[in-house]
Amino acid sequence: NMRLLACRDVEARNVKVVGWRRNTDGINPVSSNGLRIVDNFIMGQDDGISIKGNARHSPEVTDIEIVGNVFWQYFMRSIVVGGEMSMIERVAGIRVRDNDILHSSYNPRHPRDAALSVWNVDSATISDVVFEDIRVENCHRLVRIGVAVNKHSNDDKRGRIEGIVFRNIVAYNGPAIVEITGFDEEHDVKDIRFENIVVGGRRVKDPEEIFVVTNEHVSGVVFD
Description:
Structural class: mainly beta
Distance between the termini: 38 Å
Largest sheet: 12 strands, mixed
Number of helices: 0
Helix content: under 10%
Number of strands: 20
Radius of gyration: 16 Å
Strand content: over 45%
C-alpha cells in the first residue's frame, strides 16, 4: 500500500490501511533512513510494516521510529525488521515503541511469522533494534528472530543479528511463542534481551515459563 523507497527524513502519519486480499502489506520502508511511522492504522493480509533494503539505493537502513500505531494482521506479521536486505551493510537504530497489536496471525506453510520479528535472509548485520511498550491482544508467535535462507534471499552469504531488546511487552492471549534461530557458527544470533515481558498476566523471568525455541547458533538470551 505504501512503499517508502530510498527516502530520508520522511514521516508517515495518520494513514489508514484496510487490505482485503493476500499479499497486502501496510507500510514498507525500503532502503530508507531517518523515518517516522506514527499514529497509523494498518489492517491487512500480510506484513503490517516490513523494513527492507537493497544496496542499489542505500548501503544502510538506519534511524527508523515506529510509534503509536495499531495493527491487525490476518496473515503473516505485524512488524518485521529485515526480510529482504540485499547487499545491505548495516541495519541499526530501529525503535518500535508504544504500539498496539490487535491480532497477528501466521502462515502455516512458512513458520517464520510473529507479532514482532527480526528476520535476516541476506548478508546484512542487523543490530540495535528496540521493541518497547507494546500491547499484543492476540498472537500465535510473539517473537521470531532468525538468520535463514528462503525464496526472498538474494545474497550468496548470510548475515548476523545481535543486540535486540524487547522491553515492556504485554501479550494478553495466544500461545505467545518465542522462537530464535541462527544459521551457523559465523552467522549467528546473539545478545537478545527481554525485559518485563508479561504473557497471560504473568511476568516472564525464565524462558521455561513460556514456549521458547532456540538452536545451537544462538547465545546471550536474557530474561529480566
